[in-house]
Design a protein that fits this description.
- One of its GO terms (molecular function) is L-aspartate oxidase activity.
- It holds the Pfam family FAD_binding_2.
- Pathway: Cofactor biosynthesis; NAD(+) biosynthesis; iminoaspartate from L-aspartate (oxidase route): step 1/1.
- By secondary structure, the protein is mostly helical.
- Helices cover about 40% and strands about 10% of the residues.
- The longest helix is centred in the last third of the chain and has 22 residues.
- It is globular.
- It starts with 7 loop residues before the first helix and ends with a strand.
């Protein structure tokens, strides 16, 4: 009903629906009704990228598919970017600042990076002299990561395995069965991975942990809200109008 103004989660679910209906891995955007000059000046990077791959978007259709775009959660911080560890700050996509809600609005990532980085600099310059302003209380549900059942079949952990698991079981539309399967596998991976020694192993370890946090929170949240959509709980619930905080 909202057409071009529909939020990202609605568009992503609609694209997924069309892909499944047609047995395809993509849908197509048609912007050929626009004058070529408008396309090349308003979308110069997309135009050149597609042209480098043999596609002239002024004349042909653009293949698109849903993809992970932006983290709306992250490390819990206050309004000054402070974590619960003294001297450790976080901002940008890695932090949960509270500016996104259930569905990130356009340009909020710029707000999150620019505003909170400036506040962190101010805080570190002034030290204890800076007092954080009073903030409205946000309802929080606290849980600890616990041991899970060991599944009979566990894939070998790798970057591609994590990506495939998250897409298949923790993707655009979720349910308890798929989330539970993913959570069990991620817990095994987290326990079995050796101590990271280089960048690839650090990235894999961090991806497994992040994937597990996302999965456990999605399993706990028995409702649909914004970008979190569960087929077994299709409606939003006032009970879950809160933040989920997970600890080790």
């Amino acid at each position: 009903p909202e057409g071009d103004l529909a939020p990202r989660d609605v568009v992503a679910r609609s694209i997924l629906y069309e892909m499944k209906k047609n047995g395809s891995d993509r849908v197509f955007i048609d912007i050929t009704h626009l004058p070529p000059r408008v396309i090349t000046t308003r979308f110069p990077h997309i135009y050149r990228f597609c042209l480098d791959h043999g596609l002239d978007i002024t004349k042909g259709l653009i293949p698109v598919a849903p993809a992970a775009h932006y983290m709306m959660g992250g490390i819990k911080v206050n309004s000054w970017g402070e974590t619960n560890i003294a001297g450790l700050f976080a901002c940008g996509e890695t932090a949960c600042t509270g500016v996104h809600g259930a569905n990130r609005l356009a340009s909020n990532s710029l707000l999150e990076a620019a505003v909170f980085s400036k506040r962190i600099v101010e805080k570190t310059r002034r030290g204890a002299k800076t007092e954080a302003p009073a903030v409205s209380k946000v309802v929080e549900v606290h849980r600890s990561l616990s041991d899970r059942q060991v599944p009979q079949v566990v894939p070998v952990p790798s970057l591609s395995a994590v990506q495939q698991l998250q897409w298949d079981k923790v993707g655009i539309i979720r349910n308890k069965e798929g989330l539970t399967q993913a959570a069990d596998i991620l817990a095994v991976w987290q326990r079995s991975l050796p101590q990271p020694t280089d960048r690839p192993s650090c990235e894999l370890s961090n991806l497994v942990l992040t994937g597990r946090l996302v999965t456990e929170a999605a399993l706990l949240r028995e409702e649909s809200r914004g970008a979190h959509s569960r087929s077994d709980f299709p409606q939003s619930s006032p009970r879950w109008q809160c933040h989920i905080v997970l600890t080790q």
